Amino acid sequence: MEEILKLIQQKASEYKEEVVEIRRYLHQNPELSFKEFNTSKYVCSKLKAYGIEYESGIVETGVVGLIKGNMAESSVIALRADLDALPIVEENEVAYKSVNKGVMHACGHDVHTSSLLGAAKILNEIKDQFSGTVKLIFQPGEERLPGGASLMIKEGVLENPVPNTIIGQHVYPQLEAGKVGFKSGMYMASTDELFMTVKGKGGHAALPHLNVDPVLITAHILTALQQVVSRMSHPTAPTVLSFGKMIANGATNIIPDKVELEGTFRAMDENWRSEAHIKMKTMAESIANSMGGECVFKIIKGYPFLVNDEAITNSAKQSAIEFLGEENVIDLDLRMTAEDFAYFSQAKPSCFYRLGIKNEEKNIISGLHTPTFDVDEDALETSIGLMAWLAIKALANKKRT
């Protein structure tokens, strides 16, 4: 295996600039969730150029490729990347700045896709040196419910052939380029979207006794709902409840008829998640009714929690240490962010790890989902080589078991 490791490192270095160009093309031409038509065509063109068999049109824009080594049926490992971008106006002044106004790869999916293409090229060139099959999953719609992962699973992406293990990566702006991070077990939260409309009776702000003030009702509801986190959740069940949008379309002297809010609920326990839904809805509706108003509380259930298989993840971490050195592999903390890779993690033993992309000297320090997000492209050499190595090691480990 030592010879294969060195060969992969050599090829990762050799193909880095090509993968950088792929990443820059994707970054410059972002597309929103479930509208990644040109991105999908571009991925297909690369797979075709590499001589990798593929199928397109899965959930319209999804693509699945297959790299068959010796004894292709002996074991199957899937590698996943997401294709979509975010509705953000990019503020970076770079040559590869988005040309699609209001759309930006501000979550690193351009890195994920280009990394998987680079790893695929390496794996396809050395397929005579490993046994089993590597399944390449290019997934649409990670950023938008119900999530492309769930839809691809419904369309049979985990069949023909059936993967034993699924591996995915995500950029990590808090970690320096050249480093990666792992966490086994529970890793990321479930996510639900909350939509609340508080109705009252608007009128002149100087005559509140003639009105039913939905702004005041909303204030009471928001304060009370935090009890779900601070008083009702179990200390071992991390929970987040946040409202990020509120519209009360009145004025200095006008009380509006209604207030509209949007928020998110995150949890790590499915039973508590369901219980909390009932508590939030009941509490909000009761408070509004007690104050003479009405509350319509709508919950759109989103992604489940993401759990990394302990054996698979611990093995992947050791493989990363072999490839990068122990000083470049860290342990990650629990996160209350969410990812639709969670659907894969609950369907098959999985490992979802983080790729460092920060470089303070280059002023690459912005967080995810910001208009100045960018990556140190030196991280692409790490990502394509490590992903190929993780696939090789996972296939070898599965064969031994």
Would you kindly provide a written description of the structure presented here, covering whatever features stand out?
The chain has helices spanning 2-28, 37-50, 109-125, 148-154, 214-225, 227-232, 270-290, 310-324, 341-347, 379-400, and strands spanning 53-58, 62-68, 76-82, 133-139, 165-176, 180-182, 185-188, 190-199, 203-204, 239-247, 254-255, 258-267, 294-301, 306-308, 329-331, 350-358. It is α/β, with parallel strands linked by helices and 401 residues long. The protein has two domains: 2-189 and 305-400, 3-Layer(aba) Sandwich (Aminopeptidase); 190-301, Alpha-Beta Plaits (2-Layer Sandwich). The strands form four sheets. Strands 1-2-4-3-5-16-6-15 form an eight-stranded mixed beta sheet, with helices on both faces. A hairpin with a 3-residue loop joins strand 1 (53-58) and strand 2. The longest helix has 27 residues, at 2-28. The chain is elongated, with a radius of gyration of 24 Å. 49% of the residues are buried. The model has no long low-confidence stretch (mean pLDDT 97).
Give descriptors for this structure.
401 residues, alpha/beta, Aminopeptidase, eight-stranded mixed beta sheet, four-stranded antiparallel beta sheet, 37% helix
Please list the strands of the largest sheet in the order they lie side by side.
1-2-4-3-5-16-6-15
- State Rg: 24 Å
Q: Which residues sit in consecutive blocks of at least 5 with pLDDT less than 50? A: none
CATH-defined topology of the largest domain: Aminopeptidase
Q: What pattern of helices and strands is seen along the backbone?
A: HHEEEHEHEEEEEHHEEEHEEHEHEH
Overall pLDDT score: 97
Described by strand count, sense and barrel closure, the largest sheet is: 8 strands, mixed
Total strand segments = 16
Shape: elongated
Q: N-to-C terminal Cα separation, in Å?
A: 17 Å
* Total discrete domains: 2
Q: Which architecture name of the largest domain does CATH use?
A: 3-Layer(aba) Sandwich
Query: Helix content range of the residues, please?
Result: 25-40%
Strand content: 25-35%
Q: What is the CATH class designation of the largest domain?
A: Alpha Beta
CATH-level-4 superfamily name of the largest domain: Zn peptidases
Structural class: alpha/beta
